[in-house]
Amino acid sequence: MDKKGNLIVLSGFSGVGKGKVSKMLVEKYDYALSVSATTRSPREGEVHGREYYFLDKEEFLASVEKDGFIEYATYVDNYYGTPRAYVEEKLSRDQSVILEIEVQGALSVKKQYPDAILIFITAPSVEELKDRLTGRGTEAEDVIRARLQTAVRESGYIDQYEYIVCNENGKVEECVDQIHHIVESRNMLVSNQKNFIHVLKEELTDYR
Ligand code: 5GP
Fold this sequence. Notes:
208 residues, alpha/beta, Rossmann fold, 4-stranded mixed sheet
């Protein structure tokens, strides 16, 4: 069957566990994961070039000027952007790439790459979301509040996603497998297997 690189866009409310889900998709199913640039400060344990490229505002805007990002957006007073070179290189080699980005960025990617698969990850309830944000212990009370307020705005965009997947407590692997199945089934669409079908038909002409 034809193998093509997919652009998989994962979004979800802050604290829902997107980072863990993306990491497991890379480990279990060998997806490539795009590392974004951001102007926010590193959290404890975050490493430049691994979780993010941590840039100052001038560096970030210089990269915007050079068309270095596929998309960029502001989120709770900081810039976040998807570096263009990595994504284009992976797609040109038919490798699937995951972008873990917020809603404005996701919709902008979909405009530029209509085949991109937009998946929204949610927690089972808002109560649980808040518990996870509080439990993370890395954010001040006002930042948690700002992130929940952002969630209110983001919830207005869910309808524009194609899939919604629930990351339930203790069931992260289920969520990871569901995302992988979504991507696999997308590849099995007849419209994504044009070359393969063409070859099959050619081979069958011998039996006419
Ligand atoms: P955090 O500060 O918690 O790491 O990320 C905040 C939000 O920014 C998350 O919703 C995350 O998905 C999003 N984000 C991370 N990288 C990018 C990016 O390159 N572009 C956009 N538009 N959003 C991003």
